[in-house]
Amino acid sequence: xxxxxxxxxxxxxxxxxxxxxxxxxxxxxxxxxxxxxxxxxxxxxxxxxxxxxxxxxxxxxxxxxxxxxxxxxxxxxxxxxxxxxxxxxxxxxxxxxxxxxxxxxxxxxxxxxxxxxxxxxxxxxxxxxxxxxxxxxxxxxxxxxxxxxxxxxxxxxxxxxxxxxxxxxxxxxxxxxxxxxxxxxxxxxxxxxxxxxxxxxxxxxxxxxxxxxxxxxxxxxxxxxxxxxxxxxxxxxxxxxxxxxxxxxxxxxxxxxxxxxxxxxxxxxxxxxxxxxxxxxxxxxxxxxxxxxxxxxxx
Length: 299
Known about the structure:
This protein is mostly helical. 56% of the residues lie in helices and 7% in strands. The strands form three sheets. A two-stranded antiparallel ribbon has the order 1-2. A two-stranded antiparallel ribbon has the order 3-4.
């Protein structure tokens, strides 16, 4: 049977290898601009008003050069950390899937910026190029000029960490280089903090955080919940459990989970995550390291 082409088969050749490093190089360029030509930074932000009314189309891409924070030792450490988890996700998911996740987050951020502009102009604009908020009149040009800085890659970086926490929830990291803590708890803390920022932040902050969380939510539903709870997957797991109950397994050492690629079981690594693949034809289960990288079994 001829295999049906997937999006990866069609567009996979366009995926960028080591995309995390590409982003970090963009940040380095941004830091150099901040040091040697700080006035230029104002012309790089994702300002939808300037894009529409002044045709500054380069802002659709140049905002990726703006670093997520001021340059310092803590920022350098965080960039090394994001490089580590980014490359781990790229190896786990594959280059195409990792590219899709990041580019989708960027597109959502751009769309959120334009939606923010439309809502502000329609809801608070006076029709003469001004914004009226709480009785105060602001120039629309200056309003979007100052608040467009909220649309940066900062929350995209946080979405990378949340995706990592979903993929490797039981992995331990050293908080403050001393305290061992599971990644899933840090992920939950990040979500709580982001929701708090949405509540207390301005309208621009609400939109940019919503864009980042929406990207993570779509990733979570398509990789964790929906594929795992599909009826055919439930049926496969039920049949497998019945075989185990009837003693039809070949191995006397019965395990609940076993990766079809490397053979690892929960007895060998109790913290390993296992999932059935929705695209494989049969009862094929994979560990988290091979779930996104294996070749689908169609027969």
